[in-house]
Specification:
five-stranded parallel β-sheet; single chain; Tumour Suppressor Smad4; Rossmann fold
Length: 486
């Protein structure tokens, strides 16, 4: 399916350090600044990833020059989208130096365009992770706070796949940390694949020993010290034989302490000593034992906050975080969602001894709905979707929006998608006849949104109630339309 890389000549690849950052949507505004403050220092570094259909996948580098998307684009800045339902000049992306955002607009195409589900009949602001629909083609706007300087070839693309900037940054971080013997702290939301990252760090470290993984959240509170550091025979009731413990089991290799934030507070000083002195003392023993172990800790908790609340030792946190790698959520690497779906589907079949069988192509509305979902469950949610769609493989039928399982939209914070014409579409769960997700209300025009906002005195909460939408969606609409709320 080949990921192409198209780099525009001249001004289209002039990157400047200024960026939009990762501010909370509630703090964002696209209010046009006063003329005295409208000093443009260059465009936000950004890329467009063509992610659907698979045969069109490519990456376009954006700058301050206008980029046209279509079957016959104006220049070489973007590859032609060779699809019969794409117009010759279908969609344009350009830098707005006043609003300091890239904007996108339809060019009077036959089959329309949208940004984050909003028809792009006027120039709409693009934000990091915006999903663009250009006829049947889908693209993801990628504008992180910074782009990685390199994409190291030694890091396995099987372990850390993806073309999104966040995935490339993750590979760069892993390549830098892996050869060093110091501890590594992996942080990130649940389901982001932290154990996969730990295994790749261990592989690249060149350590001869094995990787031993343990989940601190499931260790026996009464026996956790013994489980980590071992014990001698007779050290306590039931200790009928000597046990070496996990540290010594990982001798010469790597010990992964998953869910490190759950480690009991009274045991944390002993872990700190093991890290500093490179030795452990088994329970009941009188002598310490030297260990050669590289420790990788992982957590979905905010350890800095737990330090401030007294639930985690500051000195241990500092020691574990000599290398701290933030594993990005799937929302931050949205451009890689559909390839992850294909990848996990292939793994699902391999694990069951089944012949390779590609997942059917997704119809545009179905793929767009998946791209726009927040995926708070990250890769675990994608894996669950693979299970739900397993029977569809080999049918030869494209998967429509109605074929996606209803649980995708069951969380009230996630909105059931509307069809291309912005009319509600019932979503039938795979294998669950008649199961429907609540339809999404139609998307308002800029004028309708502005009028309701004015009626409610600029209140986002009241506007969200009016449209029966989550407040985050209202903020996205405001940003796209260049409006401001309270």
């Amino acid at each position: 399916m080949g990921h192409g890389l198209v780099r525009a000549p001249g001004p289209c690849v002039r990157f400047a350090p200024a960026g939009m950052g990762d501010e909370d949507l509630q703090n964002r505004t696209t209010e046009v600044p006063k003329a005295s403050r409208a000093i443009d220092t260059g465009p936000t570094p950004a890329e467009l990833h063509v992610v659907h259909p698979t045969e069109l996948r490519a990456t376009v580098v954006l700058g301050d020059a206008k980029v046209t998307l279509g079957r016959q684009p104006d220049d070489d800045a973007a590859p032609p989208l060779l699809h019969t339902l794409v117009s010759r000049k279908h969609f344009a992306v350009e830098w707005d130096p006043v609003r300091r955002v890239h904007t996108g607009v339809d060019l009077g195409s036959s089959n329309g365009s949208a940004v984050d589900g909003i028809p792009a009949n006027v120039k709409l602001a693009l934000r990091d992770g915006s999903v663009l629909r250009v006829g049947p083609a889908l693209l993801v706007y990628d504008a992180p706070s910074k782009f990685p300087a390199t994409d190291p070839p030694e890091v396995s693309r099987d372990a850390i796949p993806g073309q999104a900037a966040a995935a490339r940054q993750l590979r760069e971080d892993v390549a830098r940390a892996a050869p060093d013997p110091s501890p590594v702290l992996l942080t990130g939301a649940t389901g982001t694949g932290k154990e996969l990252i730990a295994r790749e760090i261990h592989r690249l470290s060149g350590r001869a020993g094995k990787l031993v993984a343990v989940n601190c959240a499931v260790l026996n509170p009464q026996l956790v010290e013994s489980q980590l550091f071992g014990h001698v025979r007779g050290a306590f009731t039931g200790a009928q034989s000597e046990q070496e413990g996990l540290f010594r089991a990982a001798e010469g290799g790597t010990l992964l302490l998953d869910e490190i934030g759950e480690l009991p507070l009274d045991l944390q000083p002993k872990l700190l000593r093991a890290l500093q002195e490179k030795e452990v003392c088994p329970i009941g023993g009188t002598r310490t034992v030297k260990v050669d172990v590289r420790v990788i800790a992982a957590t979905n908790r905010d350890l800095a906050a737990r330090v401030e609340s007294g639930e985690f030792r500051r000195d241990l946190y500092a020691r574990l975080a000599l290398w701290e790698i933030r594993v990005p959520s799937l929302q931050r690497r949205r451009a890689d969602l559909l390839p992850w779906l294909e990848r996990l589907h292939a793994r699902w079949r391999t694990e069951r001894g089944l012949e390779p069988q590609p997942l059917p192509e997704l119809e545009t509305e179905a793929a767009e709905a998946l791209l726009l979902r927040e995926w708070s469950d990250n890769l675990r949610g994608v894996d669950r979707l693979v299970h739900a769609l397993a029977d569809a493989a080999g049918t030869g039928q494209a998967l429509a929006l109605r074929d996606l399982p209803a649980w995708l939209w069951a969380d009230p914070a996630r909105e059931a998608p509307a069809a291309r014409a912005e009319t509600p579409v019932p979503t039938q769960a795979v294998g669950t006849p008649g199961a429907e997700a609540p339809p999404a209300p139609p998307i308002p025009s800029r004028e309708e949104l502005a009028a309701v906002l004015a009626q409610n005195g600029g209140s986002i909460r009241a506007t969200a109630r009016h449209f029966a939408r989550d407040r985050r969606q209202i903020y996205r609409w405001l940003e796209a339309f260049g409006l401001k709320g309270k």
